[in-house]
DNA sequence: GTCGAACTTGACATCGACTGACAAGTTCGA
DNA sequence: TCGAACTTGTCAGTCGATGTCAAGTTCGAC
């Protein structure tokens, strides 16, 4: 058993948060993201606009907010990968954490429209890309530490780790595009595998 | 001779635009991007806030606006690359268009602080990444057309072109980071070359 | 049970980016 | 020189986001 009762307050907070997010998603799908006002969302759940911002720091977070938590987990997974493992493989295993959010039973119905909204709304796409970039920054630090600990540190101005990490994330994005282009048939995991075999690091170990 | 006098109105417009941008840059460097109001910029050049928005659609464009024009040129260069050329090489040659903006004599003094501002300001970074993404979308289309014209089209759901293009842009970003991390010593062109040798497409021709 | 601290909420005000509308002035060519 | 086209400032308004304050509401110590 994990933490069963993480405080009543926290539980109701999560519940309200979920309610807001779901109302927002419904409106976004119905009218579009830009066309939906935070006031509209507030009205839909019967609270003030001010209160919506008490649960979500920005309107963007109503859609891409949960990603921050996943990103933390991904970073943890990456750090726990064995030091001798090829970087490309470490990245692939890190992306595994994303898979259940899409491939788990019943998940596709939610994930597909969300991804379509993100990729078709400029400001949301920008926000998403920025979050990916932050994660890449952290991954870069992690891999440099790992290399240093293994006695083969990268020079500060060596583009290698960032380039490899960036290429891996580019494959992730290509996988998302391909998955959507194919009408979300097949598993997301397979899409990632396919994308990550089209590109490869030149020397993948340290 | 190119177009020597593209209309007086257009010339003065460009001049005013440049004046606004330079005033903005000065303020951004001095106080930071978020801390500078569009009203401040307007006051600095002695016009109304409304008029600044007549020359630049958004505050972001005061910094990353010129990139749109360069992106058009890059796309044109990419399309003019020979059909049989390896994609990775085509991308590298496309990036050549960026080089003079940084490596040309006297350019570094301007380019370096700008890049630092972009990479350290979340909203600017997001905007920049989104513009790169748009360019990648267009490049994806271009390369698919090129492959189709050569009699070896990609399947709609094939992640290959996007993955390779994305990897190339990841190297570009890694090059920028590395260049900045090294204090902008050396040429940007060399930084790109270094980054683009760390990763490579698996099969690079169609 | 009760009381006070901690938390939550709505209401109001403000800021900054941005947009529409209008009126006044400037420029340019027929 | 006259009128169309363009530019500008001003004003008002929208929307996302933040600070403040005065109600409640909840929760634990007593």
UniProtKB/TrEMBL annotation, chains A, B:
The keyword Transit peptide does not apply. PANTHER family: HTH-TYPE TRANSCRIPTIONAL REGULATOR RUTR, MYCOFACTOCIN BIOSYNTHESIS TRANSCRIPTIONAL REGULATOR MFTR-RELATED. InterPro entries: Homeodomain-like_sf, HTH-type_TetR-like_transc_reg, HTH_TetR. Residues 14-74 form the HTH tetR-type domain. Gene3D superfamilies: Homeodomain-like (1.10.10.60), Tetracycline Repressor, domain 2 (1.10.357.10). This is TetR family transcriptional regulator. It comes from Actinacidiphila acididurans. Residues 37-56 bind DNA. The keyword rRNA processing does not apply. Keywords: DNA-binding, Transcription, Transcription regulation. It comes from the Bacteria.
């Amino acid at each position: 058993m994990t933490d069963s009762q993480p405080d009543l307050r926290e539980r109701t907070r999560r519940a309200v948060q979920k309610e807001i997010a779901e109302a927002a998603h419904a409106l976004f799908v119905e009218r579009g993201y830009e066309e939906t006002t935070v006031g509209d969302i507030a009205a839909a759940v019967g609270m003030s606009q001010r209160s919506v911002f008490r649960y979500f720091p920005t309107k963007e977070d109503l859609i891409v907010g949960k990603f921050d938590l996943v990103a933390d987990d991904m970073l943890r997974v990456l750090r726990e990968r064995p030091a001798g493992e090829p970087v490309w493989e470490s990245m692939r295993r890190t992306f595994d954490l994303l898979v259940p959010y899409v491939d788990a039973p019943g998940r596709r119905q939610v994930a597909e429209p969300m991804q379509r909204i993100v990729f078709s709304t400029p400001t949301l796409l920008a926000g998403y890309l920025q979050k990916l970039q932050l994660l890449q920054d952290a991954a870069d630090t992690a891999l440099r530490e790992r290399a240093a600990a293994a006695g083969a540190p990268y020079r500060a101005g060596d583009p290698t780790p960032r380039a490899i990490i960036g290429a891996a994330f580019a494959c992730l994005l290509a996988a998302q595009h391909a998955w959507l282009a194919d009408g979300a048939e097949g598993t997301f995991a397979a899409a990632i595998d396919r994308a990550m075999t089209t590109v490869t690091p030149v020397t993948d170990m340290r």
